[in-house]
Amino acid sequence: xxxxxxxxxxxxxxxxxxxxxxxxxxxxxxxxxxxxxxxxxxxxxxxxxxxxxxxxxxxxxxxxxxxxxxxxxxxxxxxxxxxxxxxxxxxxxxxxxxxxxxxxxxxxxxxxxxxxxxxxxxxxxxxxxxxxxxxxxxxxxxxxxxxxxxxxxxxxxxxxxxxxxxxxxxxxxxxxxxxxxxxxxxxxxxxxxxxxxxxxxxxxxxxxxxxxxxxxxxxxxxx
Length: 223
Hints:
This protein has helices at 8-17, 31-40, 55-65, 79-87, 100-109, 120-128, 139-142, 144-152, 173-177, 193-197, 201-219, and strands spanning 19-23, 45-49, 70-74, 93-94, 113-114, 116-117, 133-136, 161-164, 185-187. The protein is of the alpha/beta class. It has one domain: Aldolase class I (TIM Barrel, Alpha-Beta Barrel), CATH 3.20.20.70. The strands form three sheets. A four-stranded parallel beta sheet has the order 3-2-1-9. A three-stranded parallel beta sheet has the order 6-7-8. Strands 4-5 form a two-stranded parallel ribbon.
């Protein structure tokens, strides 16, 4: 099964990583130390959300100073933002919802892209646009793993995989990681905004290490 907008090497790397650090960065100077702190804990994939004006410059700094980090961008809401992310060298893009115009622009530019879904109708819109890796958001408020199982079941034969985000932390991450339809988790708990602001890199490394250890324990050698 083709993974459509996600080429196979990137698709597989996200699954091996298991947890993508989802980040709100206010100061671009924090971007490289943040990436290094995550890497030190074993998390090599980050999503810089477009919730602050610093996000694009943060992406450029990570790309230049910490190239071993797989750095993508989230909260992409417009075709212009797709262009900006592609121009800045983002490894992938993520959105909270399913906007056909945004997906089409990502496909045109060759930017690996995961739209956000919450309902079966969202999933079908994403499938029609050629997407097979989807962000399930907001995961816990929408009904959690039980809801995801029910909503995803009619599409399982199509190879659809999900990246849940929203209300997930170490307390419930194990259940999600063990679910066959879950490709990776969005980990906003790894580096909360206030922890980044106070430059507490040691805490971020410790959180990343806990997450990486959990992925290794739950999934073992599964690629």
